[in-house]
Specification:
It comes from Actinospica durhamensis. Helices cover 42% and strands 14% of the residues. The chain is globular, with a radius of gyration of 21 Å. It has one domain: NAD(P)-binding Rossmann-like Domain (Rossmann fold, 3-Layer(aba) Sandwich). The protein has 10 helices and 8 strands. Helix 1 runs parallel beside helix 2 and helix 1 packs across helix 9. Helix 1 links the parallel strand 1 and strand 2. It is of the alpha/beta class. The structure holds nicotinamide-adenine-dinucleotide. Nicotinamide-adenine-dinucleotide binds next to helix 1 and strand 2.
Length: 306
């Protein structure tokens, strides 16, 4: 029998929760009983999100501020402790895009994305880890990766760097925080939001969903793992709960009707040469050994399957 997941007595911080996936996470966490500190750089969106949660009977506090600097991270954890008595769950979701190909990407495009995603995840999780370790009651850290970070994607140098870095930090933190019974996992979500609605393959379906409530077709929900933001929220609630004790260090894909476990990078082929490998020896061996089945990069184009 499936029993209800109960988060009552727990407090969560969700960054970038004014809209999109973060808003869905905040609403779902609160609906399962957690008190939620709702952050967004957009103060109006943060206030409106906290109001929505409260109107649905949940407990929420809005705290606007830009994720990235440690001051915001510290303020978020402080608010959780001061207002709700502690922090049990940190969800680092805030994000921005500045897409363009490598040769056109400015320093500013690179720094903006890395600051919000990578540094923002670092500062928020560090602040949460300090408070969780001091309180000694364990905890849950849920960070946001992306298919782009796992595989690479055309036009997303900055975003790929940040998202791959986040999953790299997640693996390290899962090890460092295990003794304190703090689990650390990465979501690899796909959902219809401001970030994805303009992808030509998805756009007409998202429009029909929003305008006429037409459900997304199986081709998208199963084939592409593409659905609504609510489809992703169940995984966040699970990872925030007692039910997921022992699940740590995992990158978990979710979207539409799909739930998937991503592999971590590992060696897939190894060759040995007595005394080591010269350039000449590698050139001679490559085609018949490691070069026989090179790893692919990038995601399958929509419609081409997984
Ligand atoms: N939508 C997808 O399919 C998808 C896929 C992979 C990963 N993600 C990741 O999920 C997360 C949420 O994405 P989304 O699609 O809901 O995006 P969104 O643009 O709909 O929402 C992002 C929110 O973050 C806020 N934000 C931006 N910069 C911030 C900052 N410095 N501090 C605080 N808040 C800030 C924005 O104001 C916005 O409300 C992101 O980390 C994104 O990279 C989304």
């Amino acid at each position: 029998m499936v029993h209800a997941v109960d988060l009552s007595g727990r407090t969560a911080v969700v960054t970038g929760a004014g809209r999109g996936l973060g808003l869905a996470y905040a609403r779902a966490l609160a609906a399962h009983g957690a008190a939620v500190v709702v952050n967004d750089v957009d103060a109006e969106a943060a206030e409106a999100a906290a109001k929505l949660v409260r109107e649905a009977g949940g407990r929420a506090l809005a705290l606007a501020g830009p994720v990235g600097p440690s001051e915001t991270a510290d303020a978020l954890v402080h608010a959780a402790v001061a207002e709700f008595g502690g922090i049990d769950v940190m969800v680092t979701n805030a994000g921005v895009l500045r897409d363009t190909v490598l040769w056109k990407m400015s320093d500013e495009d690179f720094d903006t994305v890395v600051n919000v995603h990578l540094r923002g995840t670092f500062t928020c999780v560090r602040a949460a880890a300090v408070a969780m370790r001091a309180a000694g009651r364990g905890g849950r850290v849920i960070v946001a990766g992306s298919p782009t970070g796992q595989r690479g994607n055309f036009g997303q140098t900055n975003y790929a760097a940040a998202k791959a870095g986040i999953v790299g930090m997640m693996r390290t933190w899962a090890m460092e925080l295990a003794r304190a019974e703090i689990t650390v996992n990465a979501l690899i979500p796909v959902a219809a939001t401001a970030m994805t609605r303009t992808i030509p393959f998805f756009a007409p379906h998202v429009e029909a969903l929003e305008r006429d409530g037409v459900a997304l077709p199986d081709e998208l929900r199963k084939g592409e793992g593409f659905g609504t933001v609510e489809d992703v929220a169940g995984l966040v609630v699970y990872l925030a709960s007692a039910e997921s004790a022992g699940v740590t260090g995992q990158a978990i894909g979710i979207g539409g009707d799909r739930l998937a476990l991503w592999s971590h990078p590992q060696e897939v082929a190894v060759e040995y040469a007595d005394g080591g490998w010269s350039a000449e020896a590698i050139a001679a061996a490559w085609p018949a050994t490691l070069g026989r089945a090179p790893e692919t990069v990038g995601m399958p184009a929509p419609g081409e399957g997984q």
